[in-house]
Amino acid sequence: MTTRIDRRYANLARQNRAALVTFVMGGDPDPETSLEIVKALPLAGADVIEIGMPFTDPMADGPSIQAAGLRALHAGMTLNKTLALVTEFRKTDNDTPIVLMGYYNPIYVHGVDKFLIEAKAAGVDGLIVVDLPPEEDDELCLPALKANFNFIRLVAPTTDDRRLPHVLANTSGFIYYVSLTGVTGAAIVDYSRIGEAVVRIKGHTNLPVAVGFGVKTADNARAIAGQADGVVVGTAIVDALKNSLDKDNRATTKTVEAVASLVRDLAAGVRSARKVAAE
Amino acid sequence: MNQQTPNSFRTGPDERGRFGIFGGRFVAETLMPLILDLEAAYETAKADPAFHAEIAHLHTHYVGRPSPLYFAERMTEHLGGAKIYFKRDELNHTGAHKINNVLGQILLARRMGKKRIIAETGAGQHGVATATACAKYGLDCVVYMGAVDVERQKPNVFRMKMLGAQVIPVQSGARTLKDAMNEALRDWVTNVRDTFYCIGTAAGPHPYPAMVRDFQSIIGREAKEQVLAAEGRLPDSLVACIGGGSNAIGLFHPFLDDKNVAIYGVEAAGHGLAVDNGHAASLAGGRPGVLHGNRTYLLMDDDGQILEGHSISAGLDYPGIGPEHAWLRDVGRVTYLSATDKEALDAFQLCSKLEGIIPALEPAHALAKVMELAPKLPKEHVMVMNMCGRGDKDIFAVAEYLGGM
After folding, report:
1. I need a surface site. Which of A15, A211, A235, B168 has the fewest CB within 10 A?
2. pLDDT at B1
3. What is the pLDDT of residue A186?
4. What does the pLDDT read at residue B75?
5. CB atoms A59 and B292 under 8 Å
6. pTM: predicted TM-score of the whole model, two decimal places
7. Which residues on chain B are in Cβ contact (under 8 Å) with A135?
């Protein structure tokens, strides 16, 4: 059974272009504005949407996404409200894949079975749970696959060829290649290595490979899009949102457009890539 | 308890790093290969007599082990019940049990060829111990410490700097131990290849809880020998304080299968267990969750967001607890109690005046429960409490609480 994620990547492959995968924190800066932002993403050119589930202790995230999570929590965001946000979004868009991304504790405390039932009903397609490596697959990955979610795994530069098959075994939807060892928001230093890494991963899987961590501008996005099946942008979008807020971190009239405008630029970068590579 | 009693309480963790449902390896993929390397390196070292010989040499000549088992005569008389012994780990070099673990990990880091050591610290004792060992072996040392703790533990910050460590005040979250640990994990994820993360307590992803316990078990092994020499028999009870729980598991572990030894762990009840977010007693007031690489009891809200907790002791001010303690509680082998800030302060003062030993605020929590348990017990009852740290670092904080003295 295919998911919205499978169908989206298959369509884009036929168009010979990479997917733009955009990350926003659910509930940032408040639940209502967050819904408007998520709705604006596909119109601005996002192909896949990742929605962060805020957590107090995001150990793999840099300062921007940490702060986004805290803004959302201060605005009263909860896991139930994140699921409600997806439900609302689905009323207007039944095609764009939604991936929930975060840490395990809120899901574990909510109850894995309950979470999977509710996320399915809301229209969630995939999950990325940062602190669940394959060694802990029976916690959430296996039940999620059984419930026909894609379980998207992060592959790191430290994941060597010996370990890679183990990491890929229960991965579905796409592979999220973390382009650097570090937290979200750090800067990529060497773009030439990314192509090599994607080729290495593709030697082990037929799944699409998206590359994230450190993609900030349309030029960065273009550079990655020429070498991978997807480009993931998170921190740059979260920063654009943050820069549009007032001094008390409240949304302004510019907030939704600040995000949409950056996403349009990134989408243009992604869409121009394969053409450049072909010339 | 409807669970079956295991034949031995000392066989954990299993190959997945679990103690029952607790423990595990809940870390980002970037760290996972490193955790597996560390586990392999530790297994090799553990099987190597040279590794143990090196640790033993350092214990004797650098730490000052064995630490004495001291009969607290006036405390015993004052309480009028059980015969009380202190295991004097506050006499170790750097003033606490922390050095036992640090030396083990630093020797392991050297075997693995790592040149840069990172650590988190709350009260600063683990940071000082790590900075000390790094100075001795010429390793780079970076210590993450919550900005709030940097303020309340200034003498230790100065000591770490003196020893050549870089102390980084952590401004994220509540700016205490939990956030220092997050920041250390972020550093590690960034600098995986050359960096060794020296965790200060028996928590975190497998193999840390087992490894730290093994390094701290010298406390219990010595205590067992010493109490046999002094009393000709095993003690009737053990008492130790618990933040993450490394001193406690170090004392308890060698005794876990001695069924007649009652074991008590003491959590920090802060302003009182009834006060919302006003204590750091994860077992008494928390529930199972996943944080910092392991499943354990955590203080959190209904949505799984981690709470800060509170304790007068910066070393106990952590919303989780080592996974082995979580399991020992659930199987009923160890009884977990808690002591409030006020009870700990009373014990701190009493011990200073009766025994001429100024305890750290952490073991003052254990002592508070000794003061409650001992009077109800017969004089033949032999009780061993772990005096896991000295109170020099706490005198200013205590003076402030007591209004200047």
Report:
1. A15
2. 45
3. 78
4. 98
5. yes
6. 0.96
7. 16, 24-25, 32
Measured CA to CA in angstroms, residue B137 lies from A193, A249, B102 at distances of: 35, 47, 12
User: What's the confidence (pLDDT) of residue B39?
Assistant: 98
Q: Do A159 and B186 touch (CB under 8 A)?
A: no
Is the pLDDT at A99 greater than 90? The verdict is yes
Cβ <8 Å between A157 and B30: yes
Facing residue for B29 by CB, picked from A56, A105, A159: A159
How confident is the model at residue B403, as a pLDDT?
84
A167 and chain B: CB distance < 8 Å anywhere?
yes
A-facing residues of B in 273-302 (CB < 8 A) are 287, 289-293, 295, 298, 300, 302
Residue of A nearest to B185 (CA): A59
* Alpha-carbon span A149 to B198, nearest angstrom: 37
Give the Cα separation of A145 and A142 in Å (integer).
5
Residue-wise pLDDT tens digits, B338-389: 999 999 999 999 999 999 999 999 999 999 999 999 999 999 999 999 999 9
Torsion angle, CA of B93/B99/B102/B107, rounded to 10 degrees? Answer: 50
The answer, for A57 touching chain B at a CB cutoff of 8 Å, is: yes
- State how far the Cα of B287 lies from the Cα of B300, in Å rounded to an integer: 8
Fold of A4-278: TIM Barrel (3.20.20)
pLDDT for B169-189, tens place per residue? Answer: 999 878 889 999 999 999 999
Q: Tell me if A55 and B298 make a contact (CB, 8 A cut-off).
A: no
| Residue A277 pLDDT level (bands cut at 50, 70, 90) | very low
CB contact under 8 A, A63 and B172: yes
Helix then strand then coil, in percent of chain B rounded to 5, is 45, 20, 35
Using the 8-state DSSP alphabet, how is residue B237 labeled? Answer: E
Q: What is the average pLDDT value for chain A, to the nearest integer?
A: 94
Residues of chain B with pLDDT under 70: 1-4, 404-405
pLDDT, residue B360, reads 96
CB spacing of B29 vs A108 below 8 angstroms = no
Q: Reply yes or no on whether A279 is catalytic.
A: no
Separation between Cα atoms, residue B345 and residue B192, nearest integer Å: 41
Contacts of B192 in chain A (CB under 8 A): 158, 181
Which of B74, B54, B76, B56 is closest to B65 using CA atoms? B56
Give the best residue of B199, B290, B308 to mutate against chain A (max A CB count within 10 A).
Answer: B290
Q: Smallest CA–CA separation between B28 and chain A, in Å?
A: 5
Confidence of residue A279 (pLDDT cuts 50, 70, 90): very low
Closest listed residue to residue A133, CA positions, set B25, B35, B188:
B25
H or E, element range at B395: helix B395-401
